[in-house]
Design a protein that fits this description.
The strands form 4 sheets. Strands 12, 13, 14, 15, 16, 17, 18 and 19 form an 8-stranded antiparallel beta sheet that branches. This protein is globular. The protein contains 16 helices and 19 strands. By secondary structure, it is of the alpha+beta class. The chain binds flavin-adenine dinucleotide (FAD). Flavin-adenine dinucleotide binds near residues 66, 68, 71 and 142. Flavin-adenine dinucleotide binds next to strand 3, helix 5, strand 10 and helix 12.
Length: about 475
């Protein structure tokens, strides 16, 4: 294969090629440390033309391509398999912001730009790019679009699919589809853009995107709230929509078990409330209307609403952030959930969704289902309750190592997913399928849906070289 590697070098140069084992290592395993693969080379093109040339070469030589952004995905989608015959194509050198149009509320970027950089650039122009998730300092917009990422503001702004107008894609043939249109309306045949969003790199490589921007909020209220139950959290959220004048931008639910793990493993984390409670909500309202001199603004409205909710027994205690730093500290308790669980030991993650009003019943039945399979397991449910999306996670019993827990994990997952189906929900609300959930997708999606997906994959990637083994077996 040395001839092939030299041809790659001819396209991307020395800076764009990693072939030594130490250099390749960070690209070959996933964030959760579930998968470790092998690759002929890590290829880091610097432009769409270079991506296209690499993909054309791979098509000619029948070499599989695994696209990779920030490598923060939760389902192993960016990890190559172990046979070592694929390349990893990293977009991390394609990290330029190409244009900001504050008048038209758009930003055009290369796929490898880190999400936080996009948020900061939008803020510099007094605009907002609302996609926000705990991995935002490392994940890339290409990965966000390829996974149709969700995050903590979906209930107000939508998921990644709703935040983009146009994309440019390198197809498995190496041709470039220029769909970089900044159009709000375009009903000209099938929506090709939507096909690539959420395809997890199995249909092509997203190289550039035109993103939508929003006005930057000028008044933000954030509260850390202890609630008696998930049912109270859902009722609290339901009333908050009207009480905030439709300004609820985030509503996150957490169980005490998750807070305890954050306090134990994350330096500097502190409980905002004096007493321990079983359930917490992190509620954020934001508005583009600035708070005027002497006005209580959204914080005043939120305080009044929480006071009423307390009288109704929906709220046990609450702390309203008095500063940006305090709001950040509340958010850190939520955003460090994944990190602290990783530090604590083996766990399985169920990124599920059901309709918002069915969350309380699902929570009761789901916790019971996990404990029926393994009474000593440690459930840590949390998530975007406003989207009906729970990370219905389960930590191994204390003292268990990963191999022992993984023997029983499939039975726990099957119990959870069967229940999700009973509730008409989804077995992957925002993380995607990757290589981790290929079997589950085949089991839980209907024949017509799977046949249609396979037909699309075969039509666009007949040689099955674009991220093979992910999402679907063809
Ligand atoms: C602490 C933590 C918190 C998280 N929170 C959330 C959350 O709240 N919501 C959420 O949705 N996700 C969350 N995630 C998962 C992850 O951050 C997202 O899936 C993110 O969108 C992945 O971006 P990435 O650049 O890291 O992609 P990668 O992990 O590199 O790749 C993900 C998938 O996209 C493909 N891909 C990457 N770039 C491209 C491209 N340019 N063209 C085509 N395909 C491509 C890969 O092949 C792979 O299948 C979290 C992850 C972590 C570690």
């Amino acid at each position: 294969m040395s001839g092939f590697v030299e041809k790659l070098r001819g396209i991307v140069g020395d800076r764009g090629l990693v072939v030594d084992d130490a250099g390749k290592a960070p690209y070959l395993g996933d964030w959760r440390e579930n998968f470790m693969g092998a690759a002929l080379a890590i290829v880091r093109p610097a432009s769409t033309d270079e991506v296209a040339s690499v993909v054309r070469l791979c098509a000619a030589e029948k070499v599989a391509v695994v696209p990779q952004g920030g490598n923060t995905g939760m389902v192993g989608g960016a990890t190559p398999d172990t046979d070592g015959r694929a390349i990893v194509l990293s977009l991390n050198r394609m990290n330029r912001i190409l244009e900001v149009d504050p008048l038209g509320y758009t930003m055009t970027v290369e796929a490898g730009v880190v999400l936080k950089t996009i948020q900061d650039e939008a803020a510099r122009h007094d605009r907002l790019f609302p996609l926000s998730l705990a991995a935002e300092g490392s994940c890339t917009i290409g990965g966000n679009l390829a996974t149709n990422a969700g995050g903590v503001q979906v209930l107000h702004y939508g998921n990644a699919r709703q935040l983009v107008l146009g994309i440019e894609v390198v197809l498995p043939s190496g041709e470039v589809w220029n769909g970089l249109r900044a159009l709000k309306k375009d009903n000209t045949g099938y929506d090709l853009r939507d096909l690539y969003l959420g395809a997890e790199g199995t249909l092509g490589i997203i190289t550039r995107a035109v993103l939508k921007l929003w006005p930057r909020p000028k008044d933000i209220a954030t509260a850390w709230i202890a609630v008696p139950s998930p049912a109270a959290a859902v009722t609290l959220l339901s009333g908050a929509h009207a009480a905030s004048e439709d300004n609820v931008t985030s509503c996150e639910l957490m169980a005490r078990q998750g807070i305890d793990l954050v306090l134990q493993h994350i330096p500097g984390a502190a409980d905002p409330l004096a007493e321990r409670h079983d359930w917490y909500v992190l509620l954020e309202w934001s508005s583009t209307r600035p708070r005027r001199e002497g006005e209580a603004g959204l914080a005043g409205k939120m305080e009044a609403y929480l006071g009423e909710a307390m009288e109704q027994g929906l709220v046990l205690d609450a702390a309203l952030a008095q500063s940006e730093a305090q709001a950040k500290a509340f958010w850190a308790l939520r955003e460090n959930h994944s990190e602290s669980q990783k530090k604590d030991g083996p766990s399985i993650k169920h990124d599920i969704s059901v309709s918002v009003s069915r969350i309380p019943a699902f929570m009761d039945e789901g916790l019971a289902a996990m404990r029926t399979v393994l009474p000593s397991c440690r459930p840590v449910p949390f998530g975007h309750v406003g989207d009906g999306n729970l990370h219905f996670n389960c930590m191994a019993p204390v003292g268990w190592d990963k191999p022992r827990f993984m023997e029983v994990a499939p039975a726990i997952s099957a119990a959870v997913y069967d229940l999700v189906v009973k509730y008409g929900g989804s077995i992957s609300a925002e993380h995607g399928i990757g290589r981790m959930k290929v079997e589950e997708l085949a089991h839980y999606r209907g024949r017509i849906e799977l046949d249609t997906m396979r037909a699309i994959k075969r039509a666009l990637d007949p040689a099955n070289l674009m991220n093979p083994g992910k999402v679907l077996e063809v």
